[in-house]
Amino acid sequence: KQWYQRRVRGKRFEAMIKEQPEELYCTDTIHDLLISYRDIKDYKSMINFIDSLPNSNSLPSSVPSSLPNSLPNSLPYNNSKTNTLIQYLYAFALERSSTDDHCERDRALEILLSILASNAQNGQISEIPSLCGRIYKKKYMASGRANSDYLDSAIHWYQK
To answer: Considering only CA atoms, which of 127, 21, 31 is closest in space to residue 78?
Structure first.
């Protein structure tokens, strides 16, 4: 019952955000909503929410143009740290929601690697290497434990 109440509150909150003009979107509010969905393990809602936000021309420089489908060009970011957190939460949701969908897992890995590349000097979220290791471990398991490169990559990321 408690999970259902949280989900209903999250959906109401999401609707209120979407009623606002795009220029009033606050990254802190978006972050809080994504955290709420994460806490109740509603990863599909996290993905759907980010995918459904209106387009914006204020895409930050930290999202490389080489990743056109990794993160929707939809969030008006004000702060690169919040931007990184939202990207991380999006990748986290993609990884957790993918059961056997290798595309979602690969997409999440692309986002995480781009965060690491763009924030090399600025610091990073400490959970990113662990999530990269988890993705490679899942890829290794999905290969029937045949692809040792995935295992080596998983170990590499877990050791960071």
So the answer is: 31
Quick one: residue 145, left, alpha or beta (phi over 0 = left, psi -120 to 50 = alpha)?
left
Instruction: Please give the model's pTM, rounded to 2 decimal places.
Output: 0.74
The structure tokens 């993705």 sit at 135
Phi, psi of 135 (to 5 degrees): -65, -45
CB 78 within 8 A of CB 131: no
Predicted confidence (pLDDT) per residue in 78-92, tens digit: 443 347 888 899 999
How many Å apart are CA 36 and CA 79, to the nearest integer? 20
How remote is the C-alpha of 75 from its chain's centroid? Answer: 13
